[in-house]
Amino acid sequence: MMKLLEGKFGWGLLLVAGLLFPFMAGNDYHLTVMSTAYIFAIATLGLNLITGYTGQFNLAHAGFMAVGAYTLGILTVDYEVSFWLAFLLAGVVTVLVGLPLGWVSLRLRGHYFSIFTLCVGTIMFLVIEKWESLTHGTVGIMGIPAPTAIGPLSFDTPVSIYYLVYFFLVLGVWMMRRIVDSLMGRTFMAIRNGDELAEALGVNLMRNKLMAFSLSVLYAGFAGALYAGFVRFLGPDLAGASHAFDMTMYMIIGGLGTVLGPLLGALMVPWLTQYLQALQEFRFLIFGPVLIFLVIFVPNGIVGTWVARRARQASDAALGKQAPAKETAKESTKQGDAAQKESASA
Amino acid sequence: MDIFLQQVLNGLTLGGIYSLVALGLTLVYGILHVPNFAHGAFYMVGAFVALKLMTGWEVNYWIAMIGAAGVVAVIGALSERLVFHPLRNHPGLHPMIAAIGLLLFLEAGAQALWGADFLRMPTPFSGIVEIAGVTAPVQRLMIIAGAFTLMAVLQLFLTRTVAGSTIVAMAQNRDGASLVGIDANRVAMLTFGISGALAAVAATLYAPINLVYPAMGHLVITKAFVIIILGGMGSVPGAIVGGLIIGFAESFGAYYISTDYKDIISFVLLVVILSLRPQGLFTNGAR
Which of A66, A103, B13, B125 has its CA 20 to 30 A from that of A197? Predict the structure, then answer.
């Protein structure tokens, strides 16, 4: 049964569940919570690419999300650019900001990279807060237009917005699975598992790290732009460290270096905090120790632990079969012959 | 000239505080190779404990400072035992995330206990002294004197006492230190304790000319990280020199460039230096 849930079938079930959610949700509030969770899930997927798959713990991720969000906000409100053009530009600008920053920061390794990106995130926050003529400072950007209609599809109800965000999430997950399964994704994992070894195998470290960084930042940029179009108000807090920490938490709870993990984490945690409404302000009083507990005792997260268990079961099963292997081999050839005859006769 | 001297005084004040915070960070990094993101939270808790001791229990400023140092030292040692010790054999990512968990916990705890308001710490040293045309608030002079005295004491402790030498030995070579009979666990807890105490003293010194609030550690800790990257992670003299560089850069930058962007100056300095010299200013070898 559980085996059936893995792979394409499981993803298909999730897809259908997401499509049906608006019919099961009791009210618009639930839709809003879910849409917000999707937006942060997109950003967390990006963070997971650079941190979980490539092994570089980027603490400026919320800053890049804010760059995307502010690009959209400033372009639509102050320059009256159409929403979808601004949306595209948000992704472009985020990557353009990310490339030089990535180039500087990826020359550093391990802890130095994380510390440096923490500082980069702080700079982004401070710049957004202080550069009032561009970003409206602490007042924030108000009155960001909702996504404009594409042909017959308009986005003026919570349900339609939900489907819009959901579309981008599905696109993001699909892209991420393609990236991770490609040669490029394998290269990223090789860098995570040991960059010196990867380099010895002929991997260009800088180019690949920069590639992972740009892709991850692109996810953050589009997530930010969606956030701006969804919430329609922006303040410098979006770039604050607490959002970066939130995303780290989603990633850890779900499982580093898996596609499903960050997704699960990003969807689960907001719902938990919704139900602990009184704790909203103090949620880290519980989640802080939970984070530490998970890192110590369940370092691979929910999905990672599950995958590891499956792998162990598979290897146990393989070891168990080794002894009578010859007989099964004979049998299987017999069966194979039979199957061939059948298919020949059919 | 007066303005110049005024900025020198400001630079020394800021530099002294930053150096103290960076010293704690660099000591911990030297021993455990963990960038302790929760160090800013130690700083914040130190300020709150001192403030509450002074306003709630009407304790003298200096005793409040010692009390805060003690409390935060215990928190530091406990967090080593409960959080970082179980993770000592894990790869680089996990201790960093655990440190963030600790940071979030301490901040949320401070907010739950003491509220999110901006508080002002009273100081017994509210006077102003005039030396050679420069007006100096006594509190600023206290900060400079206190910070540099503490640095000297720390230096003596590290070089002249057995306990201090064990820390240096651990930082130099963990296995070697264990071979000559140094208890790694005890040294790690001691280091965390000292690091927490330094942060608490820095916070209590600086709080009267600043404000006390749960997020007060954020900027200070990022600057302390800038300092130890500049000075070389794990290097004690590097932390002091780096702290002074950032302190002066900020005080002169605030006056000659812009007050609004003074917090950004140190980070821009870091970006420029690291793009030119990825290995830091005072270190050799690759990272």
Answer: A103
Smallest Cα distance from B37 to chain A, Å: 9
Q: What is the pLDDT of residues A207-219, one digit of tens each?
A: 889 999 999 999 9
Query: SS3 sequence, chain B?
Result: CHHHHHHHHHHHHHHHHHHHHHHHHHHHHHHHCCCCCCHHHHHHHHHHHHHHHHHHCCCCHHHHHHHHHHHHHHHHHHHHHHHHCCCCCCCCHHHHHHHHHHHHHHHHHHHHHHCCCCECCCCCCCCEEEECCEEEEHHHHHHHHHHHHHHHHHHHHHHHCHHHHHHHHHHHCHHHHHHCCCCHHHHHHHHHHHHHHHHHHHHHHHHHHCCECCCCHHHHHHHHHHHHHHHCCCCHHHHHHHHHHHHHHHHHHHHHCCCCCHHHHHHHHHHHHHHHCCCCCCCCCCC
Q: Where are the domains of chain A?
A: 7-299, 302-346
Low-confidence ranges of chain B (pLDDT < 70): 1, 91, 131-134, 260, 277-287
Q: What is the DSSP letter of A237?
A: G
Letter string b/e over residues B232-244, b meaning 16 or more CB atoms within 10 A of that residue's CB: bbbbbebbbbbbb
d(CA A165, CA A22): 13
Contacts of B96 in chain A (CB under 8 A): 57, 111, 114
User: Which pLDDT does position B282 carry in this prediction?
Assistant: 60
pTM over cut 0.90: no
Disruptive mutation site among B93, B117, B272 for chain A (greatest number of A CBs within 10 Å)? B93
Residues of A (37-56) whose Cβ lies below 8 Å from B: 51, 55
A282 touches chain B (CB under 8 A): yes
Query: How high does pLDDT run on average in chain A?
Result: 80
Instruction: Report whether pLDDT(A241) > 80.
Output: no
Domain ranges of chain B: 2-220
Query: Within a 10 A sphere around the Cβ of A288, how many other Cβ atoms?
Result: 26
Letter for the amino acid at B233?
M
